[in-house]
Predict the 3D structure of the following.
Amino acid sequence: MADGNTPPGGPARAAAAVLRPVRDYRRLAWIWVRAVAQYPVSLALMSLAVAVSVLAQVGAVVIVFGHAGTLAGFTVYEGLMVFGLAASAFGIADMFMGAVERLGRHIRSGSLDAMLVRPVSPLVQVAADEFSPRRLGKVVPALAVLGIALAGTDVEWTLGRALLLPLMMLSGVLICCAIWVATGCLQFFVADAREAANSLTYGGQALTEYPIAIYGREIVRSVTYVVPLAFVSWQPALLVLDRPDPLGMPEALRFAGPVIAVLACAGAALLWRFGLRHYRSTGS
Amino acid sequence: MTTREPATESPTEPAAGAAAAPIIEAVGLGRDFVLTEGPFLRRTRRTVSAVQDVSFTVRTGEIVGYLGPNGAGKSSTMKMLTGILTPTAGSVRVAGMEPSRQRTRLAREIGVVFGQRTTLWWDLPLRDSLTLTRHLYRVPAAAHAERLAELTELLELEPFLGTPVRQLSLGQRMRGDLTAALLHAPRLLVLDEPTIGLDVVSKSTIREFLLKINRERGTTILITTHDLGDVERLCDRVMVIDKGRLAFDGGLPELRATVPTPRVLVVDLVAPAPAIEVEGATTVRVDGPRQWLELADNPARVIAEVAREHEVADLTLREPDIEGVVSALYRGTVPAGDRT
């Protein structure tokens, strides 16, 4: 291998296999951050616009709860907590993986071919493409809302709960990432599946921002067992609030987030590989 | 390159010319595409073969031209060699690897340039694009700096290293792409129409550059092109693909011999005259004082005869160009038995 600083075998190799995509992602993302930073005013305004849209959604939650008092047994602060969990998980996943929805564009323009001949995972390259710090405009207010909601709710903080919350949030982020990737993979097979995919990604976000018990049993079942959105905000909220499931679903589900997240990521990875193997490229 | 130090050569890389180890081995390679047509629910499926039963070997250090009309399967073959497409039949090994399964590892051994699109980052200055490439290929900084300096000099990149890629001219962009493809010192360079749309000077710069890296680094080059100037200047060997099948594989002289395209004697007479009749040649065109004679015989004898019989102002002997040969192959005027 010409000039390859190939990692040695054994554990070092395993570590490299995990760290390499992360480092490649950072490199690619950094380039875009630098490019965007050349126009700081534009960046600031865009971030602000995104943040304002998040705050508008928060306002909607407050108004809905203000009218109804409680929804599915959830108070305003508890509702905001569900919102904060959903919006932050979705926002972080969107920041890191949202660009996968532009896969179809890369296929049509042939830039995916260029990515495939580089020694870097094409998923990393697609995901890091046009990385923009403006998406922090979504994440920061969402985390702030979550913080305020947690402070305003009567949570009985135990060590277990304090440790489980970040773990569940990470699981939520991973689940959202998996949904981004899995729905993005549709574009390997259907030329413009982006809109269909968005019904699950953005639609999923809208769904998880409210306590899903308000939607009815069939929807709750499908977002628990089919597309695991319930593990992004609903089950973690039940866990933190230590509340029985209003729909009588098994209580063990609230601890299942990490397992579901790993399964979702594995599924998404398999779909990606399958899509890539069946990739047909464009003419010429 | 002349200033190259031996230390930067990969120790496993065989010296140019010394080795004849195969770097590409394709056996019965094929790729089908399933097309679905018609309206929803009444869809019909049709299988189209882009490439069928293509077998060839490329040895280290060769420059091979891969020719064929549009849609013949050139790009599909290239994409299978680089791991972009998975073959549906046969097998291929490139640098000892199976491209579609070991694509990422193979990427470090090969450089790929698509003439029609760039592998550089559109919005970044060329220099940043190249630095990013260095990181992605994990080229040590010192080796990168040395190679970049060398390529900058050879391809005269200096004036536009700081220019964003989207503002580069086609010729500049192509030189940038070539640099990006060569910074990790690949053993094999795969070029898909690298001179398309370029002016004569840019074409020539790129051809001479390719010859140089082939000679001095021993880089194997596989090139698809419609530009037969590229072929005549660069390739020791050509493969012609037509309708997905390999129609010819051999040297340029053999390709010329495959199709009987006669040499043409262009005669400028002092004054317009009726078609010249001379043994061993047929007059194929008359345009005022100028006449075109297809030679079936020794040109010296024909020339002498023409000069004896007519008052000649000028004579030019035209060698058959490879273009005529290849298009004759495409048209299928070659008997099937003569094809390799």
The interface with chain B takes residues 1-5, 24, 27-28, 31, 35, 109-111, 113-114, 116-121, 277-281, 283-284 of chain A (CB under 8 Å). Chain A has one domain: 21-277. Residues 21-277 of chain A form one domain.
